[in-house]
Design goal:
single chain, about 700 residues, alpha/beta, Immunoglobulin-like, TIM Barrel, eight-stranded parallel barrel, six-stranded antiparallel β-sheet, 30 strands, about 20% helix, elongated
């Protein structure tokens, strides 16, 4: 780049926006005294090819610094350097020696912030300027209109028709066993669309794909000596940019194009895309962390700082800092990010990590109606977008059932996970709590216009045991994480069925499979919205590791050989999903008892088909769901005792008879039958329910 011409530019659309004749750059900084735009010819440049100092009079409107560089277009690369006061007790941490990312950057080149700065720190230079930027990511100008969507748009499926599938984008196909052409990439993920469609899920929920830096993790695997990484990505660098290294196409902007194509392919199969997003903190860490974006632009606006001690950071995330989410500038920043992913990337929904941080005010206290969560709920562009909260944070704020912002917010239901785990494990006197979860958790959500669809039901998720490990391990086995066993929950509500870990004992394996089928039965047939962890349908294992955040290897990857090995269980899950989607009694739009609006009614029974005395209900649970229009009757019962049980079946009216659809004691394919091929029971009044098993009957 030899000669550069530029104009004053305008404060239109923060970030880098292609305009007639060039690119308009604009960035927010209230207290900066000088801003410098640094341009690069290629991603491996050690130094900028051009530096342009912005005039504080002509290139500043209010708190927005802006400039239009002529002749630039898509693929141009840039960074900023910003000068201002360095007064940590006042919350200001400007450093003119630091190269800074554009908070609104839509793509990055390859490289590593932490690898670059760690190299500098090892040389004993903590505050100096990077003299070699060849491995430091650069921001990339993106042309949002260059991709042909061919009429695609977000699917906007009703929440009550949703079955969510949570997975790590890279880990889904990174293993050679995935048998895709580009493992671990957006393109590789798209090659599994046919599998996902056949399974029957309606949405994938992807662990973070916003740009992050794997090299943030400094821990070492004590067993192998290998450096561990930030594999999950819950530490965002760029809130508008898809992760570059997840793309097979490594040309500038390739990740954007490839992500869009993946979304388009999923939409063609009728599958929505939900992103796990981390707006609660950034990768810059605490006061000892590196400066590469928000801290160097306006630290006291982007971050929550303790009153009177603004040299430190509030740490509601457990990751060193917390974003100042209800500051007007940050609210607009987060809304702009969400709108971009919906309008330009066609994303269908968002799951907000540690969402309770988004409800804290600028004084750190929880707010009754937080401006940010209410703005997301009411935003006219996001009005059909799924919004799901993880309704707690790492500082003790727990808002399950009462997440503030509006009735459209759904929530990860940790109580469903815990109560169903206790019930299937056979804990004492837990049947009543389990019944409440099965019926939609009305104790949590039946208020203020909310519905059962506000409950995102799950048994397992990325953080914790896989379903196979839940029935195979009594305790976590996280030694490889390099944290001396301190990480990961110790309260897993798991049971190994008599042996810790992998086992060939047929009795133990049979008991484990019974439990897995029971868990899946309740996950997929309870009221609310089910979320299935990827690989649980074929017994994926992490070998007892319940916090694989740093395991970018076989522990964290999907082993697709298990899909072939456990085809019967995959079929079981697929048929359960089909059953759920074809029978509305399993996905009521309103709570039971709310008149005709509920669509169906539920009746609970003890083992004698009598009205249960809930104070005596223990390891048995039975209920019948019946459609108000008479179209459906289903009876589901579970015997979690040590002994077989002869159950009295409830009577059916209208000349109907009971047919067996599911019995988890049967081997595949007899364990689940298609509704049209259900088996007529010879004995219509009694059913022998084996110990540790469940049955689902259909009246017709």
């Amino acid at each position: 780049m030899t000669e550069v011409k530029f104009q004053n530019g305008a404060p239109i659309g923060l970030g880098a926006v292609i305009v007639e004749g060039g690119v308009n750059f604009s960035v927010y900084s209230k207290a900066a005294t000088a801003v410098e735009l640094c341009l690069f010819d290629c991603e491996a440049d050690e130094k900028p090819s051009v530096k342009i100092e912005l005039d504080p009079v002509n290139n500043r409107t209010g708190n927005i610094w802006h400039i239009m560089v002529e002749g630039l277009g898509a693929g141009a690369m840039y960074l900023y350097k910003v000068t201002g006061p360095y007064v940590p007790p006042a919350g200001l941490r400007f450093n003119s020696q630091k190269y800074l990312f554009d908070p609104y950057a839509k793509a990055f080149t390859r490289g590593s912030v932490f690898r670059s700065y760690n190299k500098l720190r090892r040389a004993g230079i903590d505050t100096g300027e990077l003299t070699d930027l060849s491995d430091f990511p650069k921001c990339i100008v993106i042309d949002d209109k260059a991709f042909d969507w061919e009429g695609d748009k977000p699917l906007n499926l009703p929440m009550y028709k949703s079955v969510i599938y949570e997975t790590h984008l890279k880990g889904f196909t990174a293993s050679p066993s995935s048998d895709v052409d580009n493992p671990g990439t957006y393109k590789g993920f798209a090659q599994k669309v046919d599998y996902l469609k056949k399974l029957g899920i309606t949405a994938v929920e992807l662990l973070p794909i916003f740009e992050f830096d794997e090299n943030e993790n400094a821990n070492i695997n004590p067993r192998t000596g290998e450096h561990l990484v930030n594999y999950w990505g819950y530490s965002t660098i760029g809130f508008f940019a898809p992760k570059t290294t997840y793309a097979a196409d490594q040309t500038p902007g390739g990740a954007v194009r490839e992500f869009k194509q993946m979304v388009k392919d999923l939409h063609k199969a009728g599958i929505e895309v939900i992103l796990d997003v981390v707006y609660n903190h950034t990768a810059e860490g605490n006061e000892h962390g590196y400066t590469f974006c928000y801290r160097g632009l306006q630290n006291d606006v982007y971050y929550s700082l303790p009153f009177g001690e603004k040299q430190y950071y509030m740490n509601f995330s457990g990751c060193g800092n917390a974003m100042n989410c209800n500051h007007p500038v940050v609210i607009e920043f987060i809304l702009a990010s969400l709108r971009y992913w919906v309008l330009e990337m066609h994303v269908d929904g968002f799951r907000f990590d540690l969402a309770s941080i988004l409800t804290r005010g600028q004084n750190a206290a929880p707010m009754e109606l937080p401006p940010l969560t209410n703005a997301i709920h009411e935003d006219p562009i996001l009005c059909n977008t799924k919004i799901i909260a993880e309704p707690w944070d790492a500082a003790g704020l727990y808002q399950l059932g009462g997440f503030p912002g509006g009735p459209r917010w759904a929530e990860w239901n940790g109580r469903f996970r815990d109560d169903i785990r206790r019930f299937i494990r056979g804990d004492e006197k837990i049947a009543t709590a389990a019944a409440t979860r099965i019926a939609g958790s009305s104790d949590l959500f039946n208020h203020d216009g909310r519905t059962p669809q506000c409950s995102i039901n799950f048994i397992t998720a990325h953080d914790g045991f896989t379903l196979n490990d839940l029935v195979s391990y009594n305790g976590k086995h996280n030694d490889d994480n390099g944290e001396c066993g301190r990480d990961g929950s110790d309260d897993n509500l798991s049971y190994n069925n008599g042996y810790e870990g992998d086992c060939t004992n047929p009795k133990i394996e049979k008991a484990r499979l019974y439990a897995i089928k029971n868990y899946l039965l309740y996950l997929l047939l309870s009221q609310g919205v089910p979320m299935l962890l990827a690989g649980d349908e074929f017994r994926r294992t992490q070998h007892g590791n319940n916090n694989a955040y740093c395991q970018d290897n076989e522990i964290g990857w999907i082993d697709w050989s298990l899909e072939k090995k456990n085809q019967g269980l995959v079929r079981y899950v697929s048929n359960l999903i089909c059953l759920r989607l074809n029978h509305h009694v399993f996905r009521n739009r309103h709570f039971f008892g709310e008149g005709q609006g509920s669509g169906s009614n539920i009746t609970w029974y003890n083992e004698l088909a009598k009205n249960p005395d809930w104070s005596k209900m223990n390891r048995f649970l039975g209920f019948k769901v019946s459609a108000n229009d008479g179209s459906d009757d289903f009876y589901l019962a579970t015997n979690n005792d040590l002994y077989d049980l002869t159950v009295t079946l409830p009577a059916l009216g209208g000349g109907k008879k009971w047919y067996r659809v599911v019995d988890t004691s049967y081997d595949s394919p007899e364990d689940i039958l298609e509704a049209e091929n259900a088996e007529l029971l010879n004995e219509q009044r009694r059913y022998v329910l084996f110990a540790g098993c469940s049955v689902l009957l259909m009246g017709k």
